[in-house]
Design goal:
alpha/beta, Cobalt-precorrin-4 Transmethylase, domain 1, Methyltransferase, Cobalt-precorrin-4 Transmethylase, Domain 2, 2 domains, five-stranded parallel sheet, five-stranded mixed sheet, 8 helices, binds S-adenosyl-L-homocysteine, transferase
């Protein structure tokens, strides 16, 4: 019996597990996700899943990549939905593995609906979303009693950007986290400034959070586009805007100073 099978014997219809793989580091998987990956027979995964996590799957597992990139959709969403349903109806349990959390900009909702419509049971295993992972890895609290009591997650994908109303999501006491904002970074900054946000608002770009090649780039909102451009920031990266990003600077500096003091003592 593996982690998927029910005690009542092999079901005629398989089940779909929508599993969050977190931001990268395998240690940030939930125990349930790790257990399912290590017992999986069929894994349908997207491009954001860290290779170290894919390496946890059994050698016998069938790995199906449906990698999505902004400009290169290898498999349209309705085909992914159809694939999950077809595998399950053929009696196979399917592990649908996604970066971060399946229900935060992960299209998990669409896949769950498609499965439900076909009579296929779905279970969701949450994962650490990029915003949470980036905040932790960059020592950057998304809320702080002295700096922010509101945090918003938005998608910065260019489509319809000008129609979106982000007024009120950023500014004093608020943290704005932008997923998929790299390509539109300059336009996003311009839009927020036009909506009344100070160009001096501090921000941070966290590239490859919770991965060995993580970079944290800090600056002001006015500098966002230039920083992304000049530093050649690569996907995946998340943009965090608000006073908490400046506090993190101070916290990191404090830690650096304490470390220096400790080394000087030795
Ligand atoms: N479901 C995912 C988000 C998918 S959308 C989650 O909950 O995290 C893809 C976007 O997530 C990327 O464009 C990037 O903005 C962000 N992202 C995912 N992994 C990341 C990482 N390790 N570091 C920084 N940003 C990441």
């Amino acid at each position: 019996m593996n982690a998927f099978s029910s005690s009542a014997g092999a079901p005629a219809v398989g089940k779909v597990w929508l599993v969050g793989a977190g931001p990268g580091d395998p240690d940030l998987l939930t125990l349930r996700a790790a257990r399912l990956i290590m017992a999986a027979k069929v894994i349908v995964h997207d491009g954001l899943v860290d290779p170290r996590i894919m390496a946890m799957a059994p050698a016998s597992a069938r790995l199906i990549s449906v990698a999505k990139r902004r400009s290169r959709h290898t498999m349209p969403q309705d085909e992914i939905n159809a694939l999950l349903v077809a595998e399950a109806l053929a009696g196979r349990d399917v592990l649908r593995l996604k970066g971060g959390d399946p229900f935060i900009f992960g299209r998990g909702g669409e896949e769950a609906e498609a499965c439900a419509a076909a009579g296929v049971a779905v279970e969701v295993v949450p994962g650490i979303s990029a915003a949470i992972g980036a905040g932790a890895a960059a020592l950057l609290p998304l809320t702080h009693r002295d700096a922010a009591s509101v945090v918003s997650f938005v998608s910065g994908q260019c489509k319809g950007l000008s129609d979106q109303n982000w007024a009120g999501l950023a500014g004093v006491g608020r943290t704005l986290v932008i997923y998929m904002g790299l390509a539109g970074a300059e336009r996003i900054a311009d839009k927020l400034i036009a909506d009344g946000l100070s160009p001096e608002t501090p921000m941070a770009v966290v590239e490859s959070a919770a991965r060995p090649d993580m970079r944290v780039l800090r600056g002001s909102l006015a500098e966002l586009g230039a920083i992304v451009d000049k530093q050649r920031v690569q996907s995946p990266a998340i943009i965090i805007i608000g006073a908490v990003t400046a506090r993190a600077d101070a916290a990191a500096k404090d830690q650096e100073l304490r470390q220096l003091a400790l080394e000087a003592e030795q």
